[in-house]
């Protein structure tokens, strides 16, 4: 838990304890996507929300600030919790939807 530039920052698991578990998580955090997900292991394991991630790993500074936290790291982390990723679109970032295997249609 911390503050930076006037914003309150807290891991997803702590927010879920205080406000209830989410059914959907949307992440668009300029390269820190894996960091956000690492703060949500309990939510991912128990609440099983759908997760939408906009991945920003196209800038050199992101590789320096978040080394090794690209798409492969995110996909492997989500797979560890039994999530399946689907690429939705790419514009200035890549957009993915991660759904728990048990909630996939078909």
Describe the structure.
With 106 residues, the protein is α+β, with helices and mostly antiparallel strands. It is built from 5 helices and 6 strands. A 4-stranded mixed β-sheet has the order 3-4-6-5, with helices on one face. A two-stranded antiparallel ribbon has the order 1-2. The radius of gyration is 14 Å and the shape is globular. The chain starts with a strand and ends in a 6-residue tail after the last strand. 19% of the residues are buried.
User: Would you identify the regions where 5 or more consecutive residues have pLDDT less than 50?
Assistant: none
The general outline is globular
* Biggest sheet architecture: 4 strands, mixed
Strand content: 25-35%
Between the first and last Cα atoms, what is the distance in angstroms?
39 Å
List the main descriptive attributes of the protein structure presented here.
106 residues, alpha+beta, four-stranded mixed beta sheet, two-stranded antiparallel ribbon, globular
Concise structural overview:
Helices cover 35% and strands 29% of the residues. It is α+β, with helices and mostly antiparallel strands.
Strand and helix map with partners:
Blueprint: E1 2-4, E2 7-9, H1 12-19, E3 24-27, H2 33-38, H3 41-47, E4 50-55, H4 60-65, H5 71-80, E5 83-90, E6 94-100
Parallel strand pairs: 3-4
Antiparallel strand pairs: 1-2, 4-6, 5-6
């Amino acid at each position: 838990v911390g503050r930076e530039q006037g914003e309150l920052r807290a891991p997803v698991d702590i927010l879920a304890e205080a406000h209830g578990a989410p059914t959907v998580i949307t992440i668009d955090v300029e390269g820190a996507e894996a960091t956000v997900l690492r703060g949500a292991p309990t939510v991912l394991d128990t609440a099983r929300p759908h997760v939408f991630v906009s991945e920003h790993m196209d800038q050199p500074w992101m590789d320096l600030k978040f080394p090794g936290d690209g798409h492969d790291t995110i996909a492997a982390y989500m797979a560890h919790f039994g999530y399946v990723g689907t690429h939705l679109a790419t514009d200035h970032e890549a957009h993915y939807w991660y759904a728990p295997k048990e909630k996939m249609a078909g």
